[in-house]
Structure formats: C-alpha cells, structure tokens
Design goal:
four-stranded mixed β-sheet; alpha/beta; globular; DUF1508 domain-containing protein; DUF1508; YegP-like_sf; UPF0339_domain
Length: 122
C-alpha cells in the first residue's frame, strides 16, 4: 500500500504519492492551506482509480473525458503524465520516464496505490 507524504514549506503544503518501494510516483502542486492539500489528496484518491489514459504522443489520439491521465513527451523527450480531475484541473504530475512502458507502469502504480493510501506528515 502506498502513502501520501505531506510536506510543509514556506510556500505552502504539497504531497507526494509514494509506492511501497519508496519511489515517488506522483507529486502535487503547492497548496496555500492544509485543507487545500487534504482536498487535493482526496481528489487523487477518488479520480486516479477511474481515470482513462489519453496518450498525447500518438498521432490523432483519442481525447478522453475527465478524469484522465494525460501522457505526453516533455522538451527533453521523456514521457510524463498528469492526472486531471473531473473539473479539468491538474491534481498530480509524474517525473520524466525514458520509456513509454515505464510511464504507463507509473500510471498503473498511481491507480493501484492512490485509493487506500495513508496520509503521513513529514
């Protein structure tokens, strides 16, 4: 089972979704308040398991409805994903992956771990 690790900084609060092996599989934006961060976690837990995958690297890709994981290639040519909630807001993002398969494995891990992940403060 994964966990949401909440961190506080001068800028605000953010969370990382961490898999059993200790790897960060998704990260949030910075929230101004603890309640905003908590709502972000709840949104990831609710939306990730049911989100479709939209592969924006494929020519003529099918646009999926929200919630969804958008897979794209960054400027360095690495694959990344962003999870968007039902309202279209980005609620979590990934690191860069060299291979598409690794990116898709990251999405599978978020889907598996987000729903019942514990919240831990660091």
């Amino acid at each position: 089972m994964g966990k949401f690790v909440v961190k506080e900084s001068k800028a605000g609060m953010r969370f990382n979704l961490v898999a059993n092996n200790g790897e960060i599989i998704a990260a949030s934006q910075v929230y101004k308040s603890a309640s905003g961060c908590k709502n972000g976690i709840a949104s990831v837990a609710k939306n990730a398991p049911i989100a479709a995958i939209e592969d924006q690297t494929a020519e003529g890709f099918k646009v999926e409805k929200h919630p969804k994981f958008e897979v794209y290639a960054d400027k360095a040519g690495e694959f990344r994903f962003r999870l968007k909630a039902t309202n279209g807001q980005i609620i979590a993002v990934s690191e860069g992956y060299k291979a598409m398969k690794s990116c898709l494995n990251g999405i599978a891990s978020v889907k598996k771990n987000a729903a019942d992940a514990k919240i831990v403060k660091e």
